[in-house]
Amino acid sequence: MMHGRALILGAAILACAAAYSEETNVDAVMQRSLVSLGNTARLDHVLAKARRGETVTVSVIGGSITAGAMASKPELNYGGVLAAWWQKTFPQAKIHLVNAGIGATGSDYGTLRAQRDLLSKNPDFVVVEYGVNDGNTEQAAETYEGLLRQILKRPNHPAVVMMFMMNNIGANAQEWQSAVGRHYDLPMISYRDALWPEIEAGRLTWKDISPDEVHPNDRGHAYVAQFVERVLQAELDKLPADENLPKIKPVQEPLLTDMFEKVDLFEADALKPVKNDGWTYDKANNCWKADKPGSVVEFVVTGRAIFAMTFTIKGPMGMANIQVDDLPPLKVNGWFSATWGGYRPTWLLPKVWKLGKHKVRVELLDEKDPGSTGHEFRIMGIGVAGL
Predict the structure, then answer these.
(1) Which value, in Å, is the radius of gyration of the alpha carbons in the chain?
(2) Range 263-385: architecture per CATH
(3) Cα distance between residue 308 and residue 112, in whole Å
(4) Alpha-carbon span 65 to 72, nearest angstrom
(5) Which of 16, 78, 126, 208 is the most core-located residue (most Cβ within 10 A)?
């Protein structure tokens, strides 16, 4: 349950968020933030649940923005501020917050881990945020659709709000993601559409809302929460009595694919090699690793689409070929030039399409990036889809 201190802090940051310059039309900013209201039946049902004083699980899933990378305190990231709004608005209810944000990850890993990190907590209300970490491509939209379908098909009918963040040049994956959102008639909110015109007009600067290229500061997080709260409050203001709540429609057929709706995830500790020459399991980092070129490890998994999760950092890292059956291998580099730390990319391997058991072979190459001083390579996990 949210505490009074969080409520006070949430209210304070919202007041800060409202402090646009005098030249800014606040109503216009708010109106631009709403891409589409969509079908609100699911929102109505979760708002009614809170109105009845029941327990409501408010959830957010996404990358480092959702995790709250640049918020000064956990309760001041947008998920914390939103949970405070729910608790303040429904003091008789018990509000639980589930923050399923993981930095430097996209909806590909999100759809693989959704059951573990989100759905197992039985969310009632979910904000999905992958507008920056996902590419604006059809392939990324496919895994994004898989994540949405997993949430929407839960038996308790969670309400879903899609959030489109942006980077410091106003770019995001909104084009493809909004096409998916319109297909499922979901509420969609755009931080980019709301604030980028203010930056272009000089009424707001990027530094006002972010200390780096991507992550919102407290003020930026407060904007995100305020845009969502505007939709929730408007819906609450006209919420009918429980007996008159609208019926929730069945989930539509997929727009792109349902391949990524039924998935499984094997982190490194769950992977058992069927062949191993030169690779060791590193318990401290939960990975399989090797540093001698020519080392080979093989795993067998079942699925129609297969993902490999590796580790990338500016360090003594090498390259590896990752191959499914006899399909062309994917060459993956474990080194990159950025200095902000390491991350675990998720690679969709060439699709096998036929459901069954498939061999995943990883071979460490003699080739490496010129900037690297070593050949170490790490396998963090394998995911499968199309089950």
Answers:
(1) 22
(2) Sandwich (2.60)
(3) 11
(4) 13
(5) 78
- Closest C-alpha to 296, from 360, 225, 238: 360
Q: How far is CA 194 from the centre of its chain?
A: 20
pLDDT digits (tens, 9 = 90+) for 114-173: 999 999 999 999 999 999 999 999 999 999 999 999 999 999 999 999 999 999 999 999
Residue 285 token pair: 């980092």
**How many CB atoms lie under 10 A from the CB of residue 266?**
17
Task: Indicate the DSSP class of residue 152.
Answer: H
Supply the pTM of this predicted model: 0.93
Q: Classify 96 as helix, strand or coil.
A: strand
> What is residue 140's three-state secondary structure?
helix
**Contact indicator for 10, 88 with CB cutoff of 8 Å:** yes
| Domain range 4-244, CATH architecture | 3-Layer(aba) Sandwich (3.40)
Q: What is the pLDDT of residues 77-121, one digit of tens each?
A: 999 999 999 999 999 999 999 999 999 999 999 999 999 999 999
Closest CA to 61 of 6, 120, 3: 120
Question: pLDDT of 195-236, one tens digit each?
Answer: 999 999 999 999 999 999 999 999 999 999 999 999 999 999
